[in-house]
């Protein structure tokens, strides 16, 4: 059996931290895994800003409630799930993702969890597993599943390389140029074409 694993932010929904950056006017929070390959350094940077500015989980979820899937993402997801199973592998957090999964029709999601203080401030983050995207692909392969993986960021490269098929989707030029051996596509039709070819081979 062949299934698909996709990243979430930048692939199916806008980047949550960029949306929060725009809502708060804090340009430093625009930095994402498309820019920073060290995920822990990125999260410690974000948490420090939240702490300095006094932002709490409710402030972020208020912004998340206004986010809609990227144009074409809902139909793409529906069409894909008619062809095969879809698992979202994301470095986002359960607390952020729940309302977005409703809008995408409740695909299966593997992600991380935040540590929240009684006053609602975010004190830390808890990875489901180190290098969780790649490890999820390897675990699924241990069940004799063949995986197609796609994402747009540095933290997606390991899962794409571990999968039997895959591509970059709307990755920034720096990543595309640094990893020319990984195919890259820009539209959902192109992504669906790559997936269909993988499923039919």
Keywords, please?
9 helices, 201 residues, 44% helix, globular, 7-stranded mixed β-sheet, 7 strands, alpha/beta, Rossmann fold
Describe how the helices and strands are arranged:
Blueprint: E1 2-6, H1 16-24, H2 39-53, H3 57-64, H4 73-83, E2 86-93, H5 94-103, E3 108-116, E4 122-126, H6 132-141, E5 146-151, H7 157-162, E6 165-169, H8 173-178, E7 184-185, H9 188-200
Parallel strand pairs: 1-2, 1-5, 2-3, 5-6, 6-7
Antiparallel strand pairs: 3-4
Quick take:
The chain is 44% helix and 20% strand. The protein has helices at 16-24, 39-53, 57-64, 73-83, 94-103, 132-141, 157-162, 173-178, 188-200, and strands spanning 2-6, 86-93, 108-116, 122-126, 146-151, 165-169, 184-185. The N and C termini lie close together (12 Å).
What are the segments in which pLDDT stays under 50 over at least 5 consecutive residues? none
Identify the CATH architecture of the domain at 2-13 and 70-112 and 128-200: 3-Layer(aba) Sandwich
Instruction: Give the end-to-end Cα distance, rounded to a whole number of Å.
Output: 12 Å
Helix and strand content put the structural class at alpha/beta
Mean model confidence by pLDDT: 95
Looking across the biggest beta sheet, what order are the strands in? 4-3-2-1-5-6-7
The H-level CATH homologous superfamily of the domain at 2-13 and 70-112 and 128-200, spelled out, is HAD superfamily/HAD-like
Element-level helix/strand string: EHHHHEHEEHEHEHEH
Can you tell me the CATH topology of the domain at 2-13 and 70-112 and 128-200?
Rossmann fold
């Amino acid at each position: 059996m062949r299934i698909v694993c996709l990243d979430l932010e930048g692939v199916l929904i806008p980047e949550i931290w960029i949306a929060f950056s725009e809502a708060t006017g804090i340009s430093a929070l625009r930095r994402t895994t498309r820019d920073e390959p060290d995920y822990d350094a990125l999260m410690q940077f974000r948490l420090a800003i939240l702490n300095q500015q006094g932002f709490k989980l409710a402030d972020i979820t208020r912004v998340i409630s206004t986010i809609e899937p990227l144009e074409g993402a809902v139909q793409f997801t529906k069409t894909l799930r008619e062809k095969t199973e879809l698992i979202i592998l994301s470095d986002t957090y359960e607390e952020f993702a729940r309302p977005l999964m409703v809008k995408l029709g409740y695909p299966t999601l593997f992600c991380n969890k935040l540590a929240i203080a009684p006053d609602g401030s975010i004190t830390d983050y808890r990875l489901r597993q180190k290098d969780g995207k790649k490890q999820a692909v390897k675990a699924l392969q241990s069940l004799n599943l063949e995986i197609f993986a796609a994402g747009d960021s540095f933290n997606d490269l390991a899962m794409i390389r571990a999968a039997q098929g895959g591509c970059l989707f709307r990755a920034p030029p720096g990543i595309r140029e640094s990893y020319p051996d990984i195919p890259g596509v820009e539209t959902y039709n192109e992504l669906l074409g790559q997936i269909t070819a993988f499923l039919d081979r």
